[in-house]
From TrEMBL:
Organism: Aureimonas endophytica
EC number: 2.1.1.266
Name of this chain's protein: Ribosomal RNA large subunit methyltransferase J
Protein role: Specifically methylates the adenine in position 2030 of 23S rRNA.
GO-annotated cellular components: cytosol
Length: 279
């Protein structure tokens, strides 16, 4: 268990798309003064050294954040807040979702971050040591979806970014989301998923639809056309209770990312409804 190490993948194309969309959702929450909470159920260590052995072994950030920085797309206004948040540590490092979220918080907002891997949880705790706006937990993130909801702010975002190692990950996501939504129907939930073959993606959509939870959209980015091979070609984010601006913003952000993140011009993106709003 817990074989997945995000250090091999930090700053790759999937991280860029996921984090740019995360920033857009948090920006929406900041339109109101009222405090919000960000809950990161699978947080990782929060900051990745791109010169580490792991990062150099795969070089995935080269076709991700580095390609974006080198392209005219880096000037796009729609990416400014994202690029600001990931550039604080310089080009040799890349922040993870909890640190990106932390950088967007105002004084009244809070972050709760869960990481189950004991070594990673310790690094995450050290990163935020002394920060009164952040709580880290060396706990199972699925627990956060149960007992720890709703947060006292009653507004906010739950990011669910599991490693997809377990065979039954889709079932865990659907069950975890259903339990969470019962406790906190008004929260925004963003669920990351890999896109390899279409059939798997369709199974995830069907499992989310089968929860009966209304108002779910998915933003999907493919960096190359689907082929026969079973490898990561795309990245998805399913959002429950999306901000009313989300579909349009996500489409615009992903369209800008097609050029820098696409493989030989073959990228595409779409925003689709998984479940409609309750009438
Ligand atoms: N969200 C992070 C980001 O965007 O920077 C990346 C997270 S990575 C894809 C998944 C993380 O979940 C890994 O660090 C792994 O150790 C952790 N993990 C695996 N199972 C978990 C569980 N049940 N609860 C909490 N964390 C878990």
């Amino acid at each position: 268990r817990l074989n997945y190490r995000h250090a091999f993948h930090a700053g790759n194309f999937a991280d860029v798309v996921k984090h740019a969309l995360l920033v857009a959702i948090v920006a929406y929450l900041k339109r109101k003064e009222k405090p919000f909470r960000v809950i990161d159920t699978h947080a990782g260590i929060g900051l990745y050294d791109l010169s580490s052995e792991e990062a150099r072994r795969t070089g995935e950030h080269l076709a991700g954040i580095d390609a974006l920085r080198a392209s005219p797309a880096a000037e796009a206004a729609a990416l400014a807040a994202y690029l600001d948040a990931v550039s604080v540590d310089g080009p040799g490092a890349y922040p993870g979702s909890p640190l990106i979220a932390r950088r967007l918080l105002r004084r009244q907002d809070r972050l709760s971050a869960y990481e189950l891997h004991p070594v990673d949880a310790e690094r995450l705790a050290a990163l935020f040591a002394g920060d009164v706006q952040v709580k880290t937990f060396a706990l199972d993130g699925w627990l956060a979806l149960g007992a720890h909801l709703p947060p006292k702010e009653k507004r906010g975002l739950v990011l669910i970014d599991p490693p997809f190692e377990a065979k039954d990950e889709i079932a865990s996501i659907a069950a975890g989301l259903a339990a969470a939504h019962r406790r906190w129907p008004g929260g925004i939930y963003a669920i990351w998923y890999p896109i390899k073959r279409a059939a798997e993606r369709d199974r995830l959509h069907a499992a989310l639809a089968a929860t009966g939870i209304p108002d779910i959209v998915a933003a999907e980015f493919l960096r190359e056309p689907p082929g026969a091979e079973d490898r990561l070609i795309g990245t998805g984010l399913a959002v429950v209770n999306p901000p009313f601006t989300f579909a349009q913003e996500a489409a615009a952000i992903m369209a800008i990312l097609e050029q820098p993140l696409g493989k030989s011009g073959g990228a595409s993106s779409r925003v689709v409804a998984i479940a409609s709003e309750r009438p």
